[in-house]
Amino acid sequence: MPQNASAMRLFLLGLLCVSMAACKREPKDDPRTGALRVLVFYATFRPACLTLTARDVADTSREAHTPISVDATRQSDTRMVAVFRQQGWSQDLRLTVQARERSCAGPVVAEQTVTATVPREGRLDVEMDLRAEDLDDDGFISTAQGGTDCDDTRADVNPEAPEVCDGVDNNCSQGEADASGNQLWYVDRDGDGYGTTPFPACGRPANAAAQGGDCDDSDASIHPGQEETRCDGVDENCDGTKDEPFRVGQACVTEQQCPGTYACAASGLASACLGSQSPQAWFVDEDGDGRAGTSTAPSCVSPAPGATHVSEDCDESSRFVAQGLSEVCDRMDNDCDGHVDSASCVLTWAPLANAPATSTRWNAVAAYGAGKAWFAGEEQQLLDVDGAASTPLTCAGNWRSAWATASGRVFLGADDGRIATRTATEDCAVVSLAGMSASINGLVGFEAGNGTTLYAVTSSGRVLRWDYPSAAAPVEVANLGVNLRAIHGAPGPQTLLAVGALDQGVDSPQPRAFRFDVATGSWTSEALGNTGAGFLRGVHVVDARTAYAVGDQGLVLERANGAWRMLPRLTDATGTPRDATGVVAYGRHAIYAVASDGEVRFSDGGAAWVTAYRGVTGLTAIDGPTPTEIWASGQQGTLVRFHP
What we know:
Layout: H1 3-10, E1 13-17, E2 35-43, E3 49-56, E4 63-68, E5 77-84, E6 92-100, E7 108-117, E8 123-131, E9 183-187, E10 198-201, E11 208-209, E12 251-253, E13 259-264, E14 271-275, E15 280-284, E16 294-299, E17 349-351, E18 362-369, E19 372-377, E20 381-386, E21 389-394, E22 399-404, E23 410-414, E24 418-422, E25 429-432, E26 440-448, E27 451-458, E28 462-468, E29 475-479, E30 483-488, E31 497-502, E32 510-517, E33 522-525, E34 536-541, E35 546-551, E36 556-560, E37 563-567, E38 580-585, E39 591-595, E40 599-603, E41 610-614, E42 619-626, E43 629-634, E44 639-642
Parallel strand pairs: 2-8
Antiparallel strand pairs: 1-5, 2-5, 3-4, 3-6, 6-7, 9-10, 9-11, 12-13, 13-14, 15-16, 17-44, 18-19, 19-20, 20-21, 22-23, 23-24, 24-25, 26-27, 27-28, 28-29, 30-31, 31-32, 32-33, 34-35, 35-36, 36-37, 38-39, 39-40, 40-41, 42-43, 43-44
């Protein structure tokens, strides 16, 4: 058994009486000798638990405790306890008396310790005085004296009082945070109306917000509901996701069609798709010669069927130029070796052999194969050239225009609005549109299956279409209100261009060009820029991207990707502009034009024209299927051919 427990048995603390008022005299005949009479005084409070502890000064492990009864009705009182000698203890004892608030488990609110010597005989009085204040007499001692009463002037304020929202900490705990009817608030250090740590309070405290969820209470621009306006790796709206409007981290495809992921741009105002692959250079075939040469923007995917990573064509405006082709005598670098023509090339134009002796003005030429062409002129004159054979034919009319199919059928346009067709072995078949008398100045056709769709333009501004042979006669499809002089398209109607001039109601003719929209069937006037006055008299479409038109005062226009621009004018040796009457082109570096001074001029796309053929009579038309098979016609029966 522990020594302290043994001491408890040996140490008898006797409570002699309940109060001094009840103990007026001690018994005279008390058999106990050698005792201390401890008088415990307390005032201005009601101790809930009063205890006395005795310890042997010589051996402090020897101690004993005893409660002292109190009168709960008295705020001030004196209690007495007798302490006798104990077997084995020394005569010197250290006495400690403690008063506790509310219960023996409550805080110590008053305490005193004294040392006394137990007499061997008789009694020795020991006085002990406990002081504490319970001014409002609510059973709780002021916190200043070790109690739990936070306001000892009010009996309704103590740890057991109900907490209410009245501006007072009624129960001396957490302010009003534990009051019934309070509200939950959140610490808001940055004043943005959203807080972090929640706490209850009856009214809105300073630096508090009614809404929580703030993920950064040091920055007023960061809180729930905030718009994510910057791509900066910050969760501005506190939803657990950063930069969600900018799709950061999501898969994307770059402008170069490379796979990638979105990341914040350096500006912080947007995101950018960062590719995980490097784009490669591509070349596409735009001129239809089967070899790619037009560089496109670098990409991770092929921009078109047949695209390659290596250029195979040095001129994508011409199907007559590409790596792997043979060099021929045609003023072009056919094999892309950087040299135009071979040293033995002789660029000779010659009058047509076996041409009929005539003074006829040949207004039109329609080439349809190697060594094959139709010529149409005034006073019903026609000429079919097939190799070495030249066959004069007739068809009643003054013929202004001509176009031929690959099989050799020719279509003719007359100055009185009639259209005719024939072959070298068939007679002329003439048709007309009722009421049409204006000159048919231009023809072009497109073959499909066993039929041909022919388009014609007139000096009255009409555009005609003849579906031959299914339709008996042409029909009018548009009236453009200008004097139209030529029409052309390649390879189909979607590339059609018609040119001429506005010559009614103006001081001088104004050049005009129109584009056909095959989807709507409409014609649109195109901007030509400041060209000066005059007619456009010839047009040639290379493909959907490139076309050329020529006209009065040596005017030459190039249409590249939908926009027209002027090229150097055609002039004679003195620098005088000469009217251009026809044009044919085989790419941007091989353009031929004929002029009223009798010359065929050539341009490689540079700043100057060179003379390819010099005649003495004015030329009216030029045509040719390839740059080695070109025909020109003109006044006084002029027929010339370039064929190296």
